Structure formats: structure tokens, C-alpha cells
Amino acid sequence: MATIVDHEKKKASLFESTQNIIKEALGYLGGDTATYELMKEPLRLLTVRIPVRMDDGTVQVFTGYRAQHNDAVGPTKGGIRFHPDVTEEEVKALSIWMSIKSGITGLPYGGGKGGIQCDPRALSMRELERLSRGYVRAISQLVGPTKDIPAPDVFTNSQIMAWMMDEYSEIREFESPGFITGKPLVLGGSAGRESSTAKGVTIVLREAAKRAGISVEGARVIVQGFGNAGSFLSKFLYEAGAKVVGISDAYGALYDPQGLDIPYLLDRRDSFGTVTNLFKNSISNQELLVQECDILVPAAIENQITEQNAPDIKAKILVEAANGPTTAKATEILTERGVLIVPDVLASAGGVVVSYFEWVQNNQGYYWSEEEVNEKLEKILTQSFQQVYQTSIDKKVNMRLSAYIVGLKRMVEAVKIRGWV
Ligand code: NAD
């Protein structure tokens, strides 16, 4: 069984491999040592302690973080995660990945990320509200619509964003919808935000399939994770005529070479993305990853594809909807085996793109239809994919390194032109 120490080691190694790839990418962009020293860590990291009055009258103190990677291009932006395993290293790595996502998609942002060590499933709604408001009070000096704009991430949702926006507006004494994205529609949320990550994954998956000569219609796809990203993605792929042969959640996996009945599974899943516990013939997540398929989409957690299982993966395309699902060693093995990898910083960028649209709409006070949102998302992600794909061919590098080269380019220019390095 994995221990807490194992878990922290894995997160530290994710952070280290992010730093390694930044160094490598900067080599292609003419970045010097000072540029690397500046970009290898967030510019700012705030640790906060949040006292929360629990329903039974006792006080529990939670630890939270907010990291701001780099604001040379514009305000920082990124989600807030509520999870028992949140660590400083994880928040730092995630803030860097947000910078890369914004760079690839050309958004006027740097990366930010926040998190609170907590298990939201063990909290009542009132406790969750007090914790969310307490976090905003603790970080309010550091964030704001033109400084750092939070959003939802793992185990946070539009209700939590609504409480946070309300708390921030109270502190600032004016209505501040642009402080946070992923809000409910009635408070200035954007049409299409909820399914935007999965929409984005669908767009880049289609582009990758084209390059690999695979038709999405009829393609056999395995999706690991059936939460926000994985379930919407399974739905979109099913509707596009793909054969979703495997899905999974934290408790197990289902695999059927004939294709699963996705509408039925969507109907039966609970709000935490769990469905496999309803079936007797489930297999393990590790077994699922090496089953026959054309396209594999990890959409659950980090470190799922490693040097142990990479040699046995059958997919021709790997689309990383989750953040950090593949280790550096596994990336090497898969690339050598000719698997086309669409890295996380590109594949899961749909969420931040539509978050950006939400912020633009809040600033303008003018709201778009879902069709307009989807059309603009489609345009940005198709171009982003092409840019990363072409750079990987031109520079003869794998898609992950190519994504970092494209993603860091504008930030390198901005820190130079501002005279920081
Ligand atoms: P979620 O919490 O809604 O769903 C997670 C899913 O993964 C659930 O089905 C859960 O049962 C499953 N899971 C949890 N632990 C697992 C384990 N050990 N093995 C296998 N499955 C497990 O989360 P989400 O929002 O869908 O996010 C999934 C991934 O996508 C994360 O890496 C997240 O950072 C990334 N992502 C999400 C968004 C978004 O907008 N939702 C945006 C960018 C990236």
C-alpha cells in the first residue's frame, strides 16, 4: 500500500521533472541561467492557516496555499483544489503548468494555483462554505481581477466559486465577478464552462487522430476517470461515434471490446464520478490501461503511466486529460514506441480557455452564447495543437518538450522586455 511519504515523493518528483523540462525548453528559446532561476519556481507562494468553526462547535484549523508562477505576461490564473493530499510541491508544479497552458493557447495570463488540505466529502455544506470564505479572507491581499484569478479544480465547484466571489466582493465593497471563474451562470459564469475541459480534450484528440490517420468514428477509446473531465469526454466521444471500450473510477474499471453503454453509465454515476461499484465484473485501473484500444485518455490522477506499464500500453495515441498522468521515463518509452502523446498542458487547456472567456465577459458585462464560446474554443485549440505538433517536427523533439517550448516562448520575451533578466 502507498504511504504518505511515497505520495509526497511522487509529487516532489513531478515538480522536479517539470523543472527539468523547463530547463530543456529554455535551451531552445535562448533562455539564460537567470531566466531559468526565475521560472523554475513560482514568484510567490503564500501558505495560510484557516480556522473554521465546525458544526459541533469545535474549531478545526486547515492549511491552504496560493502559488503565483509568473506575472510578466499578465495576471496569474488557475484553480483551487480541495483534497487531503494537497502539498506545497503540488501547488507549485500546478501553477507552472498553468503558465504553460496559458502560453500555448495565447491567453494574457501567467499561471497560478491554490489548494487546501481537506477532505470535502467529510464536511457539511455549512463547514465547506466557512472554509471557502476563510480561504478567500486569508489570500485576499494577493488576489484580484487584475492580479490573480482563481477557478475550480479537483473537488471544488461552481457553488464554492459563488461563496468565494461573494466573500471577495464583501471585502472589497464592490461587486467583483472577474475575481474568480467557474461561477454559476446567474453570477456571471460562462455558457459552456462546465464541459469546457472535456470539449478541449475532444478537439485535440480529433486533431491527433487526424495526424495518426485514425478516424474518431469507430475508434476504440479507453478513458480513465469518470469525473468532470472523463464523463463529459466519454459522452462527447460516444456522440461522435467512437467506441468507448473502457472507463474507470477510483474503485475499479469496466472494459468491453464491443463498446460500453455510456448514456447508461452517465445516468448511474454519482456526483464524485463513481459508477464501477455497481458492477461485479470490474477490473483494476492498472489492468484497464493496458487493454486493447486505439486511443488512451487518462482523466483521473497523476503518475498512472510509468516505466512499469508503458511497454504494455496498446494505444497509438495518448491524450492526457489529467494533469501529470505520465512520468518522464514513460514519456521516453512511449515516444520511442511511436505513440503520439498529446501532453496535459495542451490536452486539458480547454478549461482555462473558457475561464478566460468568462473573465472577458465579466469585464465587458456582455455575455456570449454557448455556440460563440465553443466556436472560439475550437479555433484556439486547433491552432494550439498545430503549433505544438509542428514545433515537435521542426525541432525533432517529443510533443511534451514541444509544448513547453511553445508555452514558455512569450513569457521569456516578456521577462526580457520588462528588464527582469
Ligand atoms: P473529478 O474529481 O471530477 O473526477 C476524478 C475521477 O477520477 C473520478 O471518477 C474518480 O473516481 C477517479 N479517480 C480518483 N482517484 C482515482 C484513482 N486512484 N484511480 C483511478 N481513478 C481515480 O476530477 P476532474 O475535474 O474530472 O479532474 C480529473 C483530472 O483532470 C485531474 O488531473 C485534473 O487536474 C484534470 N483537469 C481537470 C479540469 C477540469 O476542468 N475539471 C481541468 C484541467 C485538468
What keywords describe this structure?
alpha/beta; 6-stranded mixed β-sheet; binds nicotinamide-adenine-dinucleotide; Rossmann fold; 421 residues; 16% strand; single chain; 5-stranded mixed β-sheet
Please give the structural blueprint.
Layout: H1 4-28, H2 33-39, E1 44-53, E2 59-68, E3 76-83, H3 88-105, E4 110-117, H4 125-139, E5 148-152, H5 158-172, H6 196-212, E6 220-224, H7 228-239, E7 243-249, E8 252-255, H8 262-268, H9 285-289, E9 295-298, E10 317-319, H10 328-336, E11 340-342, H11 344-347, H12 350-364, H13 370-394, H14 399-417
Parallel strand pairs: 3-4, 3-5, 6-7, 6-9, 9-10, 10-11
Antiparallel strand pairs: 1-2, 2-4, 7-8
This protein binds nicotinamide-adenine-dinucleotide.
Describe the structure in your own words.
With 421 residues, the protein is of the alpha/beta class. Among the domains are: 42-175, 3-Layer(aba) Sandwich (Rossmann fold), CATH 3.40.50; 196-338, Rossmann fold (3-Layer(aba) Sandwich), CATH 3.40.50. It has helices spanning 4-28, 33-39, 88-105, 125-139, 158-172, 196-212, 228-239, 262-268, 285-289, 328-336, 344-347, 350-364, 370-394, 399-417, and strands at residues 44-53, 59-68, 76-83, 110-117, 148-152, 220-224, 243-249, 252-255, 295-298, 317-319, 340-342. A 6-stranded mixed β-sheet has the order 8-7-6-9-10-11, sandwiched between helices. The radius of gyration is 20 Å and the shape is globular. 52% of the residues are buried. The structure holds nicotinamide-adenine-dinucleotide. Nicotinamide-adenine-dinucleotide is lined by residues 154-155, 197, 224-230, 248-250, 273-274, 285, 299-301, 321-323, 348, 351.
